[in-house]
Amino acid sequence: MKFPQIQALKDIAALIDCEYVGADDFEVHGMNEIHVVEPGDIVFVDHPKYYDKALQSAATIVLINKEVDCPDGKALLISDDPFRDFNALTRHFRPFLQANVSIAPTAKVGEGTVIQPNTFVGNNVTIGKNCLIHSNVAIYDNTVIGDNVIIHAGTILGGDAFYYKKRPEGFDQLLSGGRVVIEDNVGIGAACTIDKGVTGDTTIGAGTKIDNQVHIGHDTVIGKKCLIASQTGIAGCVVVEDEVTMWGQVGVTSAITIGTKAVILAQTGVAKSLPGGKVYFGSPAEESREKLKDMAYVKRIPEILQKLK
Question: What Å distances lie between residue 192 and 139, 189, 205, 231, CA to CA?
């Protein structure tokens, strides 16, 4: 998430009332989650296990809960609770805007697009040309939709990321300030849910077709011309490359990559990155031919035991 204008380090520190290491006028361009940080971004870290990853990331401002040596060319924000203060910055730069009409006046809708009754289109949404948005779709603030997109009834674009910190009193949610971006010629079935990025974009590539009742988590990037069948669930920060096919009830864990033209058969559980160009099945996912051989061998166990008697 980029700020509307470049901020000075001292001003960011003042917003969250914390100490800082670096020049007063050190430039802060935005804030991002660790998977998508760029130079000029703030990244937060609150666990020693991830200090090095954050300090060595592309981010040039690190919001951290311990005084450490500041890497060259970077700045630090020293906070007793980086998670809380990261939320405070999201709340300041991307505040919740209440709506009082079905289609926000700041939304932009392209020529030839049809929006059926009872659909909600939020603030600063952009919808391209010749789209068809069926009834009871909810399109949250800042969503971007390309041309020739079809979205069926009951789908929700832009829900919050499923991202929580466990505290003694319960779970504290990390606020989501990112977007959903739907590229041209995408088809989305009924009752799908696509969460916005924590600070970046959840993206559905051009020409991809998504069946009914599919969930896609925050900051996930789906490539071009993919097919995703019903009841598939894809966690956050996943990269699905171009022309991947996922059949029904596939489950995909977070922060992995599925390679180009991979085929994931129904009810497969994907727990690690998979190379493209192969067919996978089972949980954990394996190449389907090997997995099916294993299943055939298992079926022969009673026969083998009978022979041993």
Answer: 12, 6, 16, 9
Instruction: Identify the residue whose tokens are 């760029």.
Output: 38
Contact by Cβ (8 Å): 274, 245: no
pLDDT digit string, tens, across residues 52-110: 999 999 999 999 999 999 999 999 999 999 999 999 999 999 999 999 999 999 999 99
- CATH number of the domain residue 147 falls in: 2.160.10.10
For 117, phi then psi, to 5°, come to -60, 155
* CA 113 – CA 125 distance, rounded (Å): 14
Alpha-carbon span 280 to 282, nearest angstrom: 7
- Distance between CA atoms of 115 and 111, rounded to whole angstroms? 12
- Residue 70 sits in the same domain as residue 191: no
Q: Is the Cβ–Cβ distance between 104 and 120 less than 8 Å?
A: no
- What pLDDT shows up at residue 279? 97
What contacts 128, CB < 8 A, 6 or more positions away? Answer: 110, 113, 145, 146, 147, 148, 149, 184
Which has the closest alpha carbon to 67: 86, 83, 51?
51
Q: Please tell me the distance from the alpha carbon of residue 141 to that of residue 147, in angstroms, as a whole number.
A: 18
- Active-site residue among 29, 35, 152, 218? 218
Query: Is residue 218 annotated as a catalytic residue, yes or no?
Result: yes
pTM of the model: 0.93
CATH of residue 44's domain is: 3.40.1390.10
Instruction: Count the neighbouring beta carbons within 10 Å of the beta carbon of residue 100.
Output: 6
**Which pLDDT tens digit goes with each residue over 34-47?**
988 999 999 999 99
